[in-house]
Amino acid sequence: MQRIARKVKANGFTFDSQKEANFYLKFVKESGYKHEVHPSYVIKDKVTLGGVNLSRISYTPDFVIFDNYGKIKHVY
Questions:
Q1: Low pLDDT (below 50) residues in the chain
Q2: Helix or strand or coil: residue 45?
Q3: How far is CA 66 from the centre of its chain?
């Protein structure tokens, strides 16, 4: 039997599960590093090729942690 995760609101964000919310609260938020929650990165923009519209492709990680210089340190 498959368990369905329920959305959880915490600290102004909506998480996909309680496990994800706990990870944010215990590790990401407390890390002291600048971070983003559910940012979206465009991998390929929408284009038309031979009269066909190809969809935009994007990636949305749960968390992105930045180092003290503003560079990506971790992606979860």
A1: none
A2: coil
A3: 13
